[in-house]
Design a protein that fits this description.
The complex is a heterotrimer of chains A (306), B (335) and C (297). Chain A is an all-alpha fold. Chain A has 14 helices and no strands. Helices cover 66% and strands 0% of the residues of chain C. With 297 residues, chain C is mainly α. The chains are: A mainly alpha (306), B alpha/beta (335), C mainly alpha (297). At the A-C interface, helix 1, helix 6, helix 7, helix 9 and helix 10 of A face helix 4, helix 5, helix 8, helix 9 and helix 10 of C.
Chain lengths: 306, 335, 297
């Protein structure tokens, strides 16, 4: 077990390393990183100071070392616009994104799982086709379009819900729906295929042979087993949601990390953009590691693979 | 040991189960015109190659067929009721309670997420409405009955914590938990080690004796049949080609397929240098040849075999054989 | 007699095919839609009634012709700069098509080549390519794309390159998997024994066999790429104005949203939806037709 965790940890660290290299590389690929790292309208001294700070005149590996050193110390640079350290800004906004993602995730599971189960149990018939239709729509409608249409209907034409900001419960409904929509479809698909697989298993067959009622066969034996991959995916998707929420947060002016990214782009505030990207990648690598380890704890067979 | 009863416990007459493809174009005749009887306390062996229809037959009896399969003809009289005519809800009260089944792979048959105790107690709670504590106590007793050591600790464990042999015993415990009259065992020893097989078969025999169970034993292993079974049905391409008391069949097989099966078993006393296998392949059940299904591979086939499908002929001693060779000596019986 | 309730246990080889039966029987509709969009994109100059980039400030925010205030002059109305919406939609099709197809092909070529190399050559080549792939896959596509766009600045071709860079990893992973199993097949071994060089084998034997998966993946990716491009344009780091891109139109349309100028957002959004839906349907159908074993896609 320990061996597995160490190996897996090693992979994650390697991924993080490669990610940092990638980011480092791309920032310098244009040839003039100073243009990005310097505030617009900076003076000569400022530019010189930046050169000094990031060692832009030094050989690349020195620069990279400095870069990593700064990251390790939590120094992601300073936002031009807000004049505060990027990491502080990030953690300031993160709870809002977490909240939005949590509600969106709840929505996507509440819709996705039951519809997936229904589609599997009624495979090939009406509810299955309806489910497939829903899945397609989920994949084909971009989240910001869903958000905009929601605003049109519920804010402009009906006047029921507020179109922006983060005041109360009403404020979170539409953004959570828009964000969760795509994932609801994804979860439905996975639940359906997982359920179908479980329904074809020997232990479900035995459950029927025991004379158990349908409700017990599906509700007890099939359900729990089918849910395992879905829960795993949901965990990963939660973190993914935080990152792709940038468009939804922009549409609804929701004060989360995504909106911060949008501000970063709009104001050409590069340290913010870079910082969010680094944090985003790190979070996903971390959650993947966590999920793999938890899975290995639950299912001993996984540890023996690889 | 055949226990003679007035009526057979289960009487299957002309049963046919076909798999029909979605468009209705392909029809796989998995079970075709099968007739069998089993009396209370008796052991019936069903033998055949893979694809001969034995598993489908078992699933048909309990009506746990996939949606593509349908019973297209026949009847199954069990204690004066026709199982074919029952609704699914009515069958639910038969499954596990009056007729139980053991599957082949115990690792796959047990749900990995639930405890042993839960899974053994389950049918008891469902069929007899027992309270949890009562059912769990019964579960422990059952584990003891199938000779699992320290049942108190086992009862809270999960399937992956047990060995293969123990798991199969647990499946057996589930099978007898509600005191069924008939137990169907679909290749229960195939995935067990040879050393464990013998123990398991002995256990089955003891359970059968203690509980007065009738046992249908599905296998491809004639050696097991010789040890366990009173009656034998040999299946080929979905049909029963020979049926009767085991000893009689072994001494003088009436169907060339049975004979070939018996010959292909290597014996210690054999002086032959090579194993005899049966030539050819089993037929495609969706495109059966005209005439006898075994004719293409049969060393004794003659003209009529390739043209007409033989019916079941009644031979002496309660035997039947689906072969034109048999018609020479007996009159046609109503199968 | 078998009632419909007996639907639970399915033997694997005889279960009813759940996928292709209803929705994907004929890919006719998605094909027609995609073909129409392609034709519109190609003949945009001829089809568009007005110049999509120049508008008349006196004709701002006109609604579509069936609403009060609209006219047949601007069938779908005008935007905040008085530009004709229909013309912008038509030229936007061109942007979506060009960016979509080019990016998908670019990502596909890069990803397939690297995937074949990683799968066939193995060793450190495989390790390097796979580690990079895994690392890049950990970065959400949109975030990565935004990052790159912030660095190089928006332009249509920059976006194509960025999308290619972001999405090649999907191809690499799938193709590598295929190559790993192909490597064990007879005809590859024969070629090795016959003395063919590694590159020849990869080119003449491996490549044609992975093309199927690559094509299916490409069709499925088309939808994803278009949504990403629309998202980028919506955020302002995609195709730059005044070029009409559907995502950009949605972003512009936000301004008029609160006053109910619905056509500025709903119409471009529907175009995006149609195109992505068709690409997805087509991809699903292709996947079932070309190789049922490609389920993992």
């Amino acid at each position: 077990m320990k061996q597995f965790v160490t190996r897996r940890l090693g992979y994650s660290l390697l991924s993080l390393l490669l990610l940092s290299l990638t980011i480092f590389f791309f920032v310098r690929v244009t040839g003039d990183p100073a243009a990005l790292l310097v505030e617009p309208g900076a003076s000569e001294e400022d530019i010189a100071a930046i050169h000094q700070r990031f060692g832009l005149d030094q050989p690349l590996w020195v620069q990279y070392g400095l870069f990593m050193l700064n990251l390790a110390r939590g120094d992601f640079g300073q936002s031009f616009y807000y004049q505060t350290p990027v990491l502080d800004l990030y953690f300031d906004r993160l709870p809002n994104s977490l909240l939005l993602a949590a509600v969106a995730m709840a929505f996507s599971l509440l819709v996705g799982i039951p519809s997936g189960i229904l589609a599997a149990v009624r495979v090939g018939r009406f509810w299955d086709s309806a489910g497939k239709m829903f899945a397609l729509l989920g994949l084909s409608l971009p989240s910001f379009f869903v958000g905009l249409v929601l605003i049109l209907v519920f804010s402009v034409f009906l006047g029921w819900l507020p179109s922006s900001g983060s005041g109360g419960v009403l404020h979170i409904l539409m953004p959570a729906f828009a964000l969760g929509w795509y994932f609801a479809a994804a979860h439905m698909r996975l639940t359906r295929s997982s359920m179908l697989e479980v329904l074809g298993s020997e232990y479900v067959k035995l459950a029927r042979l025991k004379g158990l009622p349908q409700s017990l066969v599906i509700g007890k034996h099939a359900f729990k087993n089918a849910l395992i991959p879905v829960v795993t995916l949901a965990g990963i998707n939660l973190v993914l949601m935080i990152n792709v929420a940038v468009v939804v947060e922009t549409v609804f002016a929701w004060p989360g990390v995504g909106r911060l990214l949008y501000e970063g782009i709009s104001f050409r505030d590069f340290p913010v953009v870079q910082g969010i990207v680094i944090m985003g990648g790190t979070m996903i690598v971390a959650v993947n590691l966590l999920v793999d380890v938890v899975y290995a704890v639950i299912d001993p067979r996984i540890r023996l693979e690889k | 040991m055949a226990v003679m009863a007035n009526r057979p416990l289960l009487e299957i007459d002309n049963l046919s189960t076909h798999y029909i493809s979605q468009q209705g174009t392909r029809v796989v005749r998995a079970v075709d015109d099968v007739s069998l009887r089993i009396n209370a306390g008796e052991t019936l062996g069903i033998v055949g190659e893979s694809g001969s229809g034995k598993s489908t037959l078992a699933l048909t009896i309990l009506r746990v067929l996939p949606p593509a399969a349908q019973i297209v003809a026949g009847s199954m009289m069990f204690e004066n009721e026709d199982l074919v005519r029952k609704s699914d809800n009515e069958m639910r009260h038969v499954r596990g309670k009056r007729i139980a089944m053991i599957l082949q792979d115990p690792m796959a048959s047990l749900n990995p997420l639930f405890t042993i105790g839960d899974q053994v107690a389950e049918p008891i709670r469902v069929h007899e409405g027992s309270r949890r504590a009562v059912a769990w106590q019964r579960a422990k007793d059952l584990l003891k009955a199938v000779r699992i050591p320290s049942p108190e600790t086992r009862v809270t464990q999960h399937p992956h914590e047990m060995s293969g042999g123990m798991r199969q015993r647990i499946v057996g415990a589930i099978g007898i938990s509600c005191e069924p009259r008939l137990l169907i065992a679909d290749e229960p020893t195939t995935s067990l080690d040879l050393t464990i097989q013998a123990q398991y078969l002995a256990l089955l025999r003891d359970l059968q004796r203690e509980h007065g169970l009738a046992l249908i034993f599905i296998t491809h292993n004639l050696g097991i049949v010789a040890r366990m079974c009173d009656q034998l049905a040999v299946m080929y391409a979905g049909r029963v080609v020979e049926y009767g008391p085991v000893s009689r069949i072994f001494n003088a097989p009436a169907h060339p397929y049975t004979e070939a099966l018996l010959n292909s078993i290597p014996r210690m006393s054999d002086s032959r240098k090579r194993l005899t296998a049966i030539e050819g392949q089993p037929p495609d059940l969706s495109a059966l040849p005209r005439g006898c299904a075994f004719a293409p591979r049969c060393p004794a086939a003659f003209d009529r075999c390739h043209k007409e499908t033989p019916p079941e002929f009644n031979l002496a001693d309660g035997r039947t054989a689906r072969c034109w060779l048999a018609s020479a000596s007996v009159q046609r019986g109503a199968a | 007699m078998s009632t419909s309730i007996e639907t639970i246990s399915l033997p694997s080889d005889l279960s009813p095919r759940p996928t292709a039966s209803r929705l994907g029987d004929t890919p006719l509709i998605p094909l027609i839609i995609l073909a129409t969009i392609a034709l519109v994109a190609i003949f945009a100059d001829v089809l568009a009634p007005h110049n999509p980039e120049v508008g008349s400030l006196t004709a701002r925010f006109r609604p579509p012709f069936w609403q009060a205030g609209g006219s047949m002059d601007h069938i779908f109305g005008t935007d905040q700069l008085g530009r004709d919406v229909l013309s912008r939609l038509i030229f936007g099709a061109r942007v979506s098509m060009v960016v979509g197809f080019t990016a998908v092909i670019f990502a596909g070529v890069v990803g397939t080549v690297l995937g074949i190399m990683a799968g066939y050559l193995g060793g450190w080549v495989d390790q390097v390519i796979m580690r990079v792939t895994d690392a890049w896959l950990a970065l959400p596509a949109l975030t990565f794309a935004i990052f790159l766009a912030a660095i190089v600045g928006p332009s249509m071709w920059n976006i194509v390159i960025i999308l290619g860079l972001v999405y090649w990893t999907r191809y690499a992973r799938v193709v590598r998997g295929e190559v790993l199993s192909l490597k064990e097949r007879e005809f590859v071994r024969l070629a090795i024994v016959a003395g063919c060089s590694k590159w020849t084998i990869m080119r003449r034997h491996i490549l044609p066999n992975v093309v199927n998966s690559a094509i299916v993946l490409a069709t499925l990716m088309l939808g994803v790429v278009i949504v990403t491009e629309a998202s980028l344009s919506f955020l302002g780091v995609g195709v730059p104005p005044p070029q009409p891109a559907w995502g950009l139109m949605l972003s512009d349309g936000k301004q008029g949203l609160m006053v109910g100028y619905w056509w500025l957002t709903v119409l471009p959004g529907c175009c995006i939806m149609l195109m992505v839906l068709s690409a997805n349907l087509l991809g699903d159908w292709l996947r079932v037709k070309l190789d049922p074993q490609l389920r993992q896609l």
